[in-house]
Amino acid sequence: MLATTPGPVSPRRAPARTRAALPLSDATLPAIAARVPVPTYDRTALVPAVVHIGVGSFHRAHQALYLDELAAAGDTGWGVVGVGLRSTEMGEVLSGQDGLYTLVERGPDGERARVVGSLVDYLHAPEDPQAVLGRLADPRTRLVTLTVTGGGYFVDDQGAFTADDPDVQQDLADPQRPSTVVGFLVEALARRRDTGTGPFTVLSCDNLPDSGRSARTAVVSFARLRDAALADWIDTHVTFPSSMVDRITPQTSPEERDAFERTYGVADRWPVLSEPFRQWVVEDDFCAGRPPLDRVGVQFVDDVTPHKRVKTRLLNGGHCALGYLGTLAGHTASDEATADPVIGGYLERLLVEEIGPLLPVVEGMELPGYCDSLMARFANPAIADPLARLCRRGSTKMPSYLLPSLREAREQGRPHGLLVLAVAAWLRYLRGTDLQGRPLQVQDAHAERLGELARQGGDDPRPLLGERSVFGRLGDDEELVAEIGETLAALSRDGVAATVAACLMNPLEETR
Length: 512
Fold this sequence. Notes:
By secondary structure, the protein is of the alpha/beta class. It has 2 domains: 22-301, Rossmann fold (3-Layer(aba) Sandwich); 305-505, N-(1-d-carboxylethyl)-l-norvaline Dehydrogenase, domain 2, CATH 1.10.1040.10. Helix content is 46%, strand content 12%. It has helices spanning 29-32, 57-61, 63-72, 89-96, 129-137, 166-173, 181-195, 211-226, 228-237, 254-264, 305-328, 334-339, 341-355, 367-378, 387-390, 394-401, 403-412, 417-429, 447-457, 462-465, 468-471, 478-505; strands spanning 22-23, 48-53, 79-84, 101-107, 110-116, 119-124, 143-146, 201-204, 243-246, 266-267, 272-274, 279-283, 299-301. The strands form 4 sheets. A 5-stranded parallel β-sheet has the order 6-3-2-7-8, sandwiched between helices. The two termini are 36 Å apart. Belongs to the mannitol dehydrogenase family. Keywords: NAD, Oxidoreductase. Residues 49-294 form the Mannitol dehydrogenase N-terminal domain. One of its GO terms (molecular function) is mannitol-1-phosphate 5-dehydrogenase activity.
């Protein structure tokens, strides 16, 4: 099922250079309303029932927007308290704007802007951990949502909690001053249990294969290191639904911020840009009351697994392939790379012919149509994503989004040459130079180690594929290793276009 932002997309307005920009705040909302839509509900009536940990552009373009629309629909019982774990900048911006920010949705035919008002407070955890714990323990808090990336859960590829992590050990030593998500959640839940307040729901919105299970494993495992009875109470009373989230939300550059101010006459220090499309599918498993988000387009299901698999394998896996191969072909942005007939043709066939047939059937979703919509979204020039952003954290993304498709294709004897090409492009990218020898900035937690192995092996992928923490047992598949090596050599020898053409002409297929 596809869900999009309701309402038409208006053409972009001409820059309003003759009027002074209004600073964004509660006090200026009446004047700003003449320029862009603003919240029509009473923000003072918002109940701080949701704590979101990890406020960034995606949360503000997605979950916070849905809750803003819920308030506009008449239910002000689900206001959001944002929590930041690292940088102070987001808090400085939101505090100076009374929690308000603008969202600009850009489609191929134009854009529209609106002010979002669902954030009622923002706390920076390192500065005041007690304030964060107080909010989490507050009886009004009924739901905690998370966008902290996979590393924030301290759960390894085998699903085990990494209790020896230094941050985890520090939180165990001083539970009153936590620094990790699990430390905050467990201490807050301990306080709620001791005071009889009761549990809250923990809803992960991160792109993990089973984000709910990861959250449960992290929280219960950490609690068990502190107090077995507390861990049992959490395991029994707290629910950890998984969800699937989808919306392309590139970073906002200073130039985009300044252009927004000129266009709309509103001075927002950190507006959010996104595509018109959005989707949120959530498992219906709430222990402290469920926000009626189905009123504003959220889909509640018994099991989000098939929805998440389709989305992560196609969109996130497609982004990985587009990022690495597009970069090696000399492109810098997603729309530019998708418009390239070589890269765009490759990506479409990768999604439809090799990844799509491996996916489960999802009620209400027609897979070819979904793939068509993805290609249109990737090609959207109004919301172009830098390929450098798509290439970040490959050692986390590839094992989660693309390598599983390659593994399953091999197991099922299905064509997999285009998947092999995506892997080969990543391995080539890890050397830190493009095909012309120009330097690339590899942004990855394991960039030094993987780069060393990539340069050591050259067109021989075995040194890299031997890294089981990233590739699992793929390196034990001698035929696959040979196929990746041949494709790596073809990229080095023939370049992207010729290698893509050869892969499209001669799909690899296991016959056993």
